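A quick aside before the break. I want you to see a complete sequence-to-structure record at least once, exactly as it would be stored in a machine-readable document. Don't worry about memorizing anything.
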Amino acid sequence: MERNSFHPAQAMELAAAFAEHTVDYMFIGKSGAILLGYPSTTQDVDVYPRNDEENGRRIVRALKSLGFTIDERLEQEIVRGKDFVQIKSGPFDIDLVFAPDGIESYEGAKQRMDTSSGLPVLNIRDVIASKRAAGRAKDAIELPLLEAFRQEYEKRK
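That is the input. The structure line, written in tokens, reads:
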């Protein structure tokens, strides 16, 4: 697999490790949308984990089991739930987003979660709301495409 782009197989591998270590999380962002069928590419796996210390410790164990190198500083950032933790020290790149823009609470987002792919994915409406709230130029370009995808996706459901 190419190192510089997201592949659904990476999500499956991560999901298996997270299940084994009982990590509470959802896939978010563009990688989450791709898992729902959005026709695009992205560079990394985006994950929205529940923010508590025990879940953070489970994340560290799961990532180590996949071959990620987690030093003490990175482990502390994960366990304390730093808002955004970028990890490039493993078989693929992963972003842990403990506080995504535009999402009011983990519990609320989890109630709306989409499991149609067989994986826990943030609802497409929440993916769009988060990208809109982030206000990044690259997201502004993507938003109309995501909206069109959402309309088609919701018709199919």
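Two observations worth writing down. The CA atoms of residues 51 and 81 lie 6 Å apart. The domain at 8-156 is CATH 3.30.460.40 (Beta Polymerase; domain 2). We'll return to this after the break.
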